[in-house]
């Protein structure tokens, strides 16, 4: 009788959680995010000039009009992505946007090597769209406050 009892020995229940499947899922998600993250940062590189001017305090995200060395325009509406745009469409879209959001600051950005005439032409287009105040963007200098 003792031999039959030892054959049917009960196993102890484990009270541990098997985390191996969770680690596998986490690693797959990590790889997916590492592959897709560089694709999400579509932007226009702008090497802004430096200045010692104070930064502008604003409660709302600004509208940024960027002009590059070739004279192409890019419009960024309140934290969105820069969109390539032509001069007539830029004026029309800014006019419609500023009509509904009159307190939103509008900035003009250009790399340091862009001709001054192109920056001035961009400011004229922005003012023709009915924007009351146009500001220029720059990188903070060493003595900026």
Structure description:
This is Tol-Pal system protein TolR. Keywords: Cell cycle, Cell division, Cell inner membrane, Cell membrane, Membrane, Transmembrane, Transmembrane helix. The Tol-Pal system is composed of five core proteins: the inner membrane proteins TolA, TolQ and TolR, the periplasmic protein TolB and the outer membrane protein Pal. They form a network linking the inner and outer membranes and the peptidoglycan layer. The chain is of the alpha/beta class and 145 residues long. It folds into 2 domains: 8-40, no CATH class; 50-140, Nucleotidyltransferase, domain 5 (2-Layer Sandwich), CATH 3.30.420.270. Helix content is 37%, strand content 16%. The chain has helices at 2-7, 20-40, 87-100, 116-128, and strands at residues 50-51, 63-67, 73-76, 83-85, 106-109, 134-136, 139-140. The strands form 2 sheets. Strands 4-3-2-5-6 form a 5-stranded mixed β-sheet. Helix 3 packs across helix 4 (116-128). The longest helix has 21 residues, at 20-40.
H/E element order: HHEEEEHEHEE
How big is the Rg?
Answer: 29 Å
The CATH architecture of the largest domain can be given as: 2-Layer Sandwich
What is the CATH class of the largest domain? Alpha Beta
Describe the main β-sheet briefly: 5 strands, mixed
- pLDDT average, as an integer? 79
Distance between the termini: 91 Å
Strand content: 15-25%
CATH topology of the largest domain: Nucleotidyltransferase, domain 5
GO molecular function, one term: transmembrane transporter activity
Subunit structure: The Tol-Pal system is composed of five core proteins: the inner membrane proteins TolA, TolQ and TolR, the periplasmic protein TolB and the outer membrane protein Pal. They form a network linking the inner and outer membranes and the peptidoglycan layer.
Family: Belongs to the ExbD/TolR family.
Keywords: Cell cycle, Cell division, Cell inner membrane, Cell membrane, Membrane, Transmembrane, Transmembrane helix
């Amino acid at each position: 009788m003792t031999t039959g009892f030892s054959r049917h020995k009960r196993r102890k229940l484990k009270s541990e959680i098997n985390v191996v499947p969770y680690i596998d899922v986490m690693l797959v998600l990590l790889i997916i995010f590492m592959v897709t993250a560089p694709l999400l940062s579509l932007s226009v590189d702008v090497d802004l000039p430096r200045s010692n001017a104070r930064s502008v305090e604003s409660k709302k995200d600004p509208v940024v009009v960027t002009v590059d060395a070739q004279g192409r325009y890019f419009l960024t509406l309140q934290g969105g992505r820069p969109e390539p745009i032509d001069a007539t469409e830029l004026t029309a879209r800014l006019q419609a946007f500023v009509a509904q959001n009159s307190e939103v600051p509008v900035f003009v950005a250009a790399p340091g090597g862009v001709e001054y005439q192109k920056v001035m032409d961009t400011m004229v287009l922005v003012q023709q769209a009915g924007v009351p105040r146009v500001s220029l963007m720059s990188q903070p200098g060493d003595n900026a406050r």
